Amino acid sequence: MRVLIVEDERVLADTIAEGLRDEAMAVDVVYDGDDALERASYNEYDVVVLDRDLPTVHGDDVCRELVERRGGGRILMLTASGDVDDRVDGLSLGADDYLPKPFVFSELVARVRALARRSGPPVPPVLERRGIRLDPHRRRVARDGRELRLTNKEFAVLEELLRAEGGVVSAERLLERAWDENIDPFSNIVRVTMATLRRKLGQPPVIETVTGSGYRLEAR
């Protein structure tokens, strides 16, 4: 899952980003509307967490533009106002959800995950294949009943493979979905993460390397 945070309060923006990264999400952060529109023009996001009260380019204008060029991502609008009329205004602009500040972080996470599920083809809340059971909401994964302790990136990579339902997922796709824009595109981080993930999943092997294409979870 990849998320864009658009918030001019830098401490709040960075705090939200770190919290979502701890939930195994890939997160990019910008602090104004211009940068938000630029990033969304070349990156694919499941969810945009958008502060409504942005300086320079107001959050309303950013929301309108993102909706007009909709690429599948959902918009969660944040505002310091909890007034009902403000919530109605935000939703009428095309935002998919609305959360007043201050908010409880666990609620923000739940809303982001709910929106992400709506941004693509329907997927079950718990993903299962080859004895692997992954619960994104509870951040738990097991194989054949054995609990596994995965890093955030290992968890995100495994989630992408499970969501593909046996389809091939390229290394480039994994970089886009599990890491943020600061990662070196020529890094071998995907290969390294895949090696540790395979070791933790144990025997028999379930992740297949498809030469020249990427990786997939074997059907049996």
UniProtKB/TrEMBL annotation:
GO biological process, one term: regulation of DNA-templated transcription
Feature: DNA-binding region: 124-219
Modification sites for 4-aspartylphosphate: 51
Assigned keywords, A-Z: DNA-binding, Phosphoprotein
InterPro entries in UniProt: CheY-like_superfamily (IPR011006), OmpR/PhoB-type_DNA-bd (IPR001867), Sig_transdc_resp-reg_receiver (IPR001789), WalR-like (IPR039420), WH-like_DNA-bd_sf (IPR036388)
Residues covered by the Response regulatory domain: 2-116
Protein name: Response regulator transcription factor
Organism annotation: Actinomadura darangshiensis
